[in-house]
UniProtKB/TrEMBL annotation:
Its EC number(s): 2.3.3.10
CDD domains found in the cross-reference section: init_cond_enzymes (cd00827)
InterPro entries per record: HMG_CoA_synt_C_dom (IPR013746), HMG_CoA_synth_N (IPR013528), HMG_CoA_synthase_prok (IPR011554), Thiolase-like (IPR016039)
Active site: E79 (proton donor/acceptor), C111 (acyl-thioester intermediate), H233 (proton donor/acceptor)
NCBIfam families given in the database record: HMG-CoA-S_prok
Domain named Hydroxymethylglutaryl-coenzyme A synthase C-terminal: residues: 245-385
Molecular-function GO term, any one: hydroxymethylglutaryl-CoA synthase activity
Record's keyword terms, sorted: Acyltransferase, Transferase
Stretches assigned to the Hydroxymethylglutaryl-coenzyme A synthase N-terminal domain: 5-164
Organism from which the protein derives: Streptococcus ruminicola
Binding site for (3S)-3-hydroxy-3-methylglutaryl-CoA: D29, Y143, K242, N276
Name assigned to this protein: Hydroxymethylglutaryl-CoA synthase
């Protein structure tokens, strides 16, 4: 059976921090961010926009009523969860009006979670061919003011509808995963921001890429020559570029290498404007590739490298199907220009503002601009979400 991504949508915050502004404020050469990290802007969420509102907005942008009546599983992959028990997907199930007889769960392994979610979705559809599964990768990447990670923050959600006979791409039945128990990036329950061994994390990312790619090629008797594009997890685009250079085979013909390079540039266009969205980053790279590549055609094979700190990596592949372009947007970069530009002072206030919960567990939440959904209030420790302007 052919199973894969039938629809893919994206949502991000309505506010943006420009990297040159941040560089000036932090007394850093702007080239360090624009050339050293390959970042132009970061999406910044206010307190009423979180993984639930972003995830629901991303999904709402792609789902039809028929989809909502058919979806029987919703998986939210995240590492910035709003609750230790209740899955974010239960809120999203209700906000979207998905039929009741569905399973809703949350998955976690740092930035890798959505890749496991996709595989679970694929296996579910294999067993229940009429099912559709909604996979949402949703995160707010927050490191803290004046930390080395600060320029690699961001926020956003990628929603993917997994079904049989998909109209964008087939998930091929080939993958290699690798686990290493390492402390490169982690967030204990008592901390709102992660602990990071930054340079070590980049070395682990690149080494897990190298070793997983070698194993993938060996197990499936394949090589870079079989692929039209390679998508990478994108904590910041410069690291993905290093990954691309690592997998590049110098013996390939020049025009083929040029095509791979062109496609790589397409994978990083959105991340340059949005920053790190953790679990969704690889899939934002895929979306960016599909919506911006000038040379991809049906039948092309795409390799994908997923990496989650802690650490788990996986390489798998997908095949583009006929008509995939019809399922995509063409003006997303333009839409990103509509975000509201923040001064560094306002960014520090907005991004790090927390709900002021009183002794009864209530909090009024300021009404900052969001996508289609917003956190309205916290009432007796319960988060109350709703549609924007829907009192
Ligand atoms: N002009 C041009 N480039 C400059 C420059 C200038 N004036 N000044 C510095 N640079 C370059 C540096 O040469 C370097 O590039 P290269 O690596 O190609 O040499 C780059 O800018 C970064 O500079 P530093 O090496 O000085 O590193 P830093 O102190 O800025 O930290 C970081 C970089 C470690 C990635 C930090 O941003 C960080 O900790 N980020 C969070 C952790 C992270 O994203 N890790 C990635 C792997 S883990 C993962 O993938 C999971 C996840 O999503 C978090």
């Amino acid at each position: 059976m052919k199973i894969g991504i039938d629809k893919i949508g994206f949502a991000t915050a309505q506010y943006v921090l420009n990297m040159d502004d941040l560089a000036e404020s932090r007394n850093v050469d702007p080239d360090k961010y624009s050339k050293g990290l390959l970042l132009n802007n970061l999406s910044i969420t206010p307190v009423n926009d979180d993984i639930v509102t972003l995830g629901a907005s991303a999904a709402e942008s792609i789902l039809s009523e028929e989809d909502k009546n058919t979806i029987d599983m919703i998986i939210v992959a995240t590492e910035s969860s709003v609750d230790q028990s209740k899955a974010a997907s239960t809120y999203i199930h209700s906000l979207l009006g998905i039929q009741p007889f569905a399973r809703s769960i949350e998955m976690k392994e740092a930035c890798y979670g959505a890749t496991a979610a996709l595989d679970y979705a694929r296996l579910h559809v294999q067993k229940h061919p009429e099912s559709k599964v909604l996979v949402i990768a949703s995160d707010v990447a927050r490191y803290g003011v004046n930390t080395p990670g600060e320029p690699t923050q961001g926020a956003g959600s990628v929603a993917m509808l997994i079904s049989k006979d998909p109209r964008i791409l087939l998930l091929n039945d080939n993958s290699v995963a690798q686990t290493r128990d390492i402390m490169d990036f982690w967030r204990p329950n008592y901390s709102t921001t992660p602990y990071v061994n930054g340079i070590y994390s980049t070395k682990q990312y690149l080494d897990m890429l190298k070793t997983t790619w070698a194993e993938f090629q060996k197990r499936f008797n394949t090589s870079l020559a079989d692929f039209s594009a390679f998508c990478f997890h994108l904590p910041f685009p410069k690291l993905a570029l290093k990954g691309f250079n690592k997998v590049m085979d110098k013996n390939l013909p020049e025009d083929f290498k040029e095509k791979l390079k062109e496609n790589f540039e397409s994978t990083i266009l959105y991340s340059k404007e949005v920053g790190n969205i953790y679990t969704g980053s690889l899939y934002l790279g895929l979306l960016s590739l599909l919506e911006n590549s000038k040379n991809l055609v049906a039948g092309d094979q795409i390799a994908l490298f997923s990496y989650g700190s802690g650490a788990v990596a996986e390489i798998f592949s997908a095949t583009l199907v006929d008509g995939f372009k019809d399922m995509l947007q063409t003006n997303r970069l333009e839409t990103l220009k509509n975000r509201i530009r923040l001064s560094v002072e306002d960014y520090e206030k907005l991004f790090f503002e927390e709900a002021a919960i009183d002794s009864e567990g209530n909090a009024n939440i300021p009404e900052y601009k969001t996508g289609a959904f917003t956190l309205k209030e916290i009432h007796e420790h319960q988060r109350i979400y709703g549609k924007v302007n829907d009192k």
